[in-house]
Amino acid sequence: MSTNRNKNIVKLAGWGISLMAFIYTVVGYIDIASDASTKAYAPLVILEGALFISIGLIVVWMGRRKSE
């Protein structure tokens, strides 16, 4: 396998992680914000989602780095 192919696989994996985390975050926020008894925890869902989205973006960044 070439280095460019490996980089593309890593970038695609990172985008996949970020996309799935974004979808889970939106669905979780809508679910938790719709109930009055759990609405106070909605910002925590956003924080958790932002953490996982940023992990995916870090993986994308690692795939874009130049090889030494």
Index terms:
2 helices; elongated; single chain; 68 residues
Description:
By secondary structure, the chain is mainly alpha-helical. The protein contains two helices and no strands. The longest helix has 31 residues. It is elongated. The model has no long low-confidence stretch (mean pLDDT 91).
Strand content: under 5%
- The backbone outline, from C-alpha atoms, is elongated
Structural class: mainly alpha
Work out the radius of gyration.
16 Å
Instruction: State the share of residues found in helices, binned by percent.
Output: over 70%
Q: N- to C-terminal separation? A: 17 Å
Q: Describe the biggest sheet?
A: none
Total count of helical runs of at least 4 residues? 2
Low-confidence stretches: none
What is the strand tally?
0
* Mean pLDDT across residues: 91
> What's the quaternary structure here?
single chain
The string of secondary-structure elements, in order, is HH
